[in-house]
Amino acid sequence: xxxxxxxxxxxxxxxxxxxxxxxxxxxxxxxxxxxxxxxxxxxxxxxxxxxxxxxxxxxxxxxxxxxxxxxxxxxxxxxxxxxxxxxxxxxxxxxxxxxxxxxxxxxxxxxxxxxxxxxxxxxxxxxxxxxxxxxxxxxxxxxxxxxxxxxxxxxxxxxxxxxxxxxxxxxxxxxxxxxxxxxxxxxxxxxxxxxxxxxxxxxxxxxxxxxxxxxxxxxxxxxxxxxxxxxxxxxxxxxxxxxxxxxxxxxxxxxxxxxxxxxxxxxxxxxxxxxxxxxxxxxxxxxxxxxxxxxxxxxxxxxxxxxxxxxxxxxxxxxxxxxxxxxxxxxxxxxxxxxxxxxxxxxxxxxxxxxxxxxxxxxxxxxxxxxxxxxxxxxxxxxxxxxxxxxxxxxxxxxxxxxxxxxxxxxxxxxxxxxxxxxxxxxxxxxxxxxxxxxxxxxxxxxxxxxxxxxxxxxxxxxxxxxxxxxxxxxxxxxxxxxxxxxxxxxxxxxxxxxxxxxxxxxxxxxxxxxxxxxxxxxxxxxxxxxxxxxxxxxxxxxxxxxxxxxxxxxxxxxxxxxxxxxxxxxxxxxxxxxxxxxxxxxxxxxxxxxxxxxxxxxxxxxxxxxxxxxxxxxx
Length: 620
Description:
The protein is α+β, with helices and mostly antiparallel strands. It contains 15 helices and 22 strands.
């Protein structure tokens, strides 16, 4: 009990006293009615938000994925209701209506059992459909323009300002503002804007401003999103002489600058330690920069530009260029903010290319492809200069090392936690050979599901690392919070030679167990050496491999070998002590939000301090 209390105090200090104070002030202010957000009043908009394109044309192919269906979380599809508009106040996945849907937003609990996973309600109200409809309307499609305006008016009617689940989150409101702004740029109506659209933006900024400090206190994409919405929306309204809008724009600019310096490290990693949230953050800053350029506003500071350049390089180095996919590292809520090309959800090249053009003044990819479409639709010229091929790289500010050799790439995750970790994934290793993810992370599945799945997907057992004594590497304090944040030990220097590239790091957890991992990669082989000790009963090494037919052979009491049915990959684990157990078990992975599929996991268990050496070979 004392240890638990100390863990909570220690974690609160790590989160930052000012952030804890901001959260408490927000909670007290909203609950008591002191926060002005509870006194907001506005009427739903009336009239069309967008008019027909003056000179219809098509800068690039239109994303047609929303043409005859609703798209959810980048991979699910649902039929458009017979009414012609979505049910905004229902679970988009199950169709279940939200009970008492028109309560004031602050009266809806964060995890209301009657609502379930509120993200399934929010999904259609992020207005991802707005951009594909705007593309089609820009091309001269009158039906698409009518649908765009009809859906916005219908949403406004069924979601009266500041009532219902879709007004609950300031970040959700911010995503809508950014989508409205990008749609206006696509339709070339950002400088001459319909009154209904300006009013819709104004109402959203009224909701965002009073709770901004709560978003800032999260030290994540909530703060960047809400700052961007205030900057974009405020400057938009100010250009149309809306009173008070200049203050919103100035506040948004100030916090965009602040968040870039605080949340993005000099080597490019982002506070959320997540590939997908890194994309969310970069798309947000891309939209802010695109808007700034079109509006003719003063440039952002050199410091912000340097941090965004580093963040772009981090993404460019971690993404596999042939498929655009990347390690399934960190939390993933299904967000994709700039769907201007009909590319797979897990294709990160469109963001990489746009961010490289804006912040590196280079192309990330030389060949033409769908990754160019966002720049074309947003009237952002692609530079002639090409970025150098991605190489091995360490982002120590976030605990990431990328090792590259030939067609192989390894992501090595180690515990450098300046911000709260969302997963117990210390010393996890991802292996990619060309477009095949040979050793893979589990993902995060859902933020509101059965406890067993919450614990599995963000726990140690769902990663390619060692688990001690059937527990996570850090104690759980709440749904989204671990205590006793790990600190790195004996971090090695990235070394490159003619024989390959290597890196290593370790940690000691709050129970005293220690783990140090060294990885060495060349064109045909990955070697991982794990030194483990000071645990109580057992340690389990896990390797999560792609779904398929795998066979396991026990060569001796200290060696196990597994191979796929095609003989194209071979994995061998050797131990300097007897192996207590070695078997293939069923594990799970989530490549998209709410998606859960089985895969094979090799578990190798020892009951005493050991050195475990894993060799993985593939056909070059």
